[in-house]
Amino acid sequence: MRIGFGIALSLLFAAAAADAKDDKGHSRPVACGDLTAFTSEGNTTVTSATLGVEEVGKAISGPATATHPLGVSVTFGNDSVVDDQSIQFSAPPPATLKAHGPSSFRDFVDDTPGPVPITITWLQYISGSSNECSASTSATLQLQAPVPVQLSKPPKRDISRGAFVWVTRNIGPHADLRPIEVRVRSVRRARFPGPHVPFKIATVALRPEDPGFNKAFRTLRTPRFKVDINHEDGFEIDAEPKVGTAAKPLGYEILVLQQGRQLARIRVSGRCGDLFGVGCFKTTVKIER
Fold first, then answer.
1. Do 107 and 208 touch, CB atoms closer than 8 A?
2. Which pLDDT band, with edges at 50, 70 and 90, does 144 fall under?
3. Domains in the chain, ordered, with CATH?
4. What is the rounded CA–CA span in Å between residue 120 and residue 109?
5. Cβ atoms of residues 178 and 111 within 8 Å
6. Total Cβ atoms within 10 A of residue 220
7. 126 in Cβ contact with 44 (< 8 Å)
8. Rounded Cα distance, 159 and 278, in Å
9. Is the pLDDT confidence value at 57 over 70?
10. What is the C-alpha to C-alpha distance for residues 175 and 130, in angstroms, rounded to an integer?
């Protein structure tokens, strides 16, 4: 469902000579506002234009949020005079605009909060002529900062007795949707992994535009340990020793990051007859958060 809000735009007209050239040396249409300079053409009134902004897949409550997929579109007061195939959108980087569906619509993403100027240009048919003139409009889209993702704390009681979970069932309407990185490493010893032990890494996409979004379920396997990652409904991490390793020592580390910000970290090591199992009554476990 798309629910949008409109932003009224003021028209900006750039004066251009009849023989103006573009950056490739090709002739370009004269600006519609300059047609009074030609005795053979009457002045053409430029149609009004309104920029619409929509949250993709959910309703917008208040200002648009940085990192969120948005849709921008233009609606003309008189679309019968507009050459649909000539409509172009532009915004300064790091904002991205991708064609999607009608020429009057673009997918928009910008990870940086603050003002983002958006410019739309098009060609307009000249009344009583086979020629076209050019017009443009622009406005500033204000993006609010996203809310950092928060993960639940792993249960203190169960962390030494079996699997545990980090989860955020509701990421939130204004949450930071940049990818989350999960790092896991383990050793077959009752000690924490040292700095020389490499991490297994999974990058989890939270928005359709990012690579790997369709991989809702992932598993990272390290010595005697595994971590299941699920982002089908929120974001969830399930961690537990592998089947058949209950009676063996283990040390592991899990690190969760988003754009370099640490969301969660834990290191665990231990040894017992039924390692981390429910029946382990002589557990020696070290936990470091």
1. no
2. very high
3. 4-144 (2.60.40), 164-288 (no CATH)
4. 16
5. yes
6. 21
7. yes
8. 11
9. no
10. 50
Residue 165's region, left for phi above 0, alpha for psi from -120 to 50, else beta, is beta
Q: Which of 45, 37, 42 is closest to 16 using CA atoms?
A: 37
Strand, coil or helix: what is 273?
A: coil
Contact yes or no for 152/168 (Cβ under 8 A): yes
Strand partners, 182: 202, 256
Q: Could you give the CA distance from residue 187 to residue 252 in angstroms, rounded to a whole number?
A: 6
Secondary structure element (H or E) that encloses residue 106, with its range:
strand 105-109
Alpha-carbon torsion (159, 162, 163, 167), positive or negative:
negative
Please state the pTM of the whole predicted model.
0.76
Cis peptide before 115 (omega within 30 of 0): no
- Please answer whether residues 235 and 149 qualify as being in contact, where contact means their C-beta atoms are separated by less than 8 angstroms: yes
**How does the average pLDDT of the chain come out, rounded?**
77
SS3 of 80, please? helix
Angle at 240 between CA 152 and CA 198, to 5 degrees: 90
Question: Strand pairing partners for 72?
Answer: 53, 106
pLDDT, tens digit, 9 for 90 and up, residues 236-285: 888 887 766 666 788 889 999 999 999 888 888 876 544 444 434 334 45
